[in-house]
Design brief:
The chain is built from five helices and three strands; from the N terminus they run αββαααβα. By secondary structure, the chain is mainly alpha-helical. α1 packs antiparallel against α3.
């Protein structure tokens, strides 16, 4: 059902990956000013664009899996897929942040690089709760 704890975890993951990314800074350096996800989507490089697309895809999958409460296996699989997407985002963000030089006054590394870690933690907790619900339903079916 919608009032389960995994729905709260999934909603928080959807909110962070779909709403909070508009307000946090990722990185900026000489040839690219990337202060939020909108400026990432306007960039010419596909790797940079994939960051914005990945966050929106992660938000959509989290929001979609909230309403799949009757199909717990599909909800669990979408959670794992979402975790993989966020690991991809984390890898790309770390790769791009390593290209930013730390000593120059024009470069800046933002807090948005750590958002996929928070999202992964929320998704792992949601998947754990989904698995507990599935085990509970299976144990009740055994008693019948």
């Amino acid at each position: 059902m919608i009032q389960r704890i995994q729905s709260i975890y999934l909603f928080l993951a959807a909110f962070i990956s779909g709403g909070l990314v508009f307000f946090v800074s990722f990185f900026s350096y000489n040839e690219m000013e990337a202060s939020n996800v909108i400026s990432l989507l306007e960039n010419d490089r596909f790797l940079i664009k994939s960051i914005g697309i990945g966050f929106f895809l992660s938000s959509f999958i989290s929001f979609l899996s909230i309403f799949l409460f009757k199909k717990r296996q599909n909800q669990f699989v979408l959670g794992r897929l979402n975790i993989l997407i966020n690991f991809y985002l984390l890898g790309v963000l770390i790769y791009e942040s390593l290209k930013v030089s730390g000593g120059a006054s024009v470069s800046e590394k933002g807090i948005g690089i750590y958002l996929p870690i928070i999202i992964v933690v929320l998704l792992v907790m949601a998947n754990k709760s989904i698995k507990m619900d599935e085990n509970l339903v299976k144990s009740v079916d055994r008693l019948r």
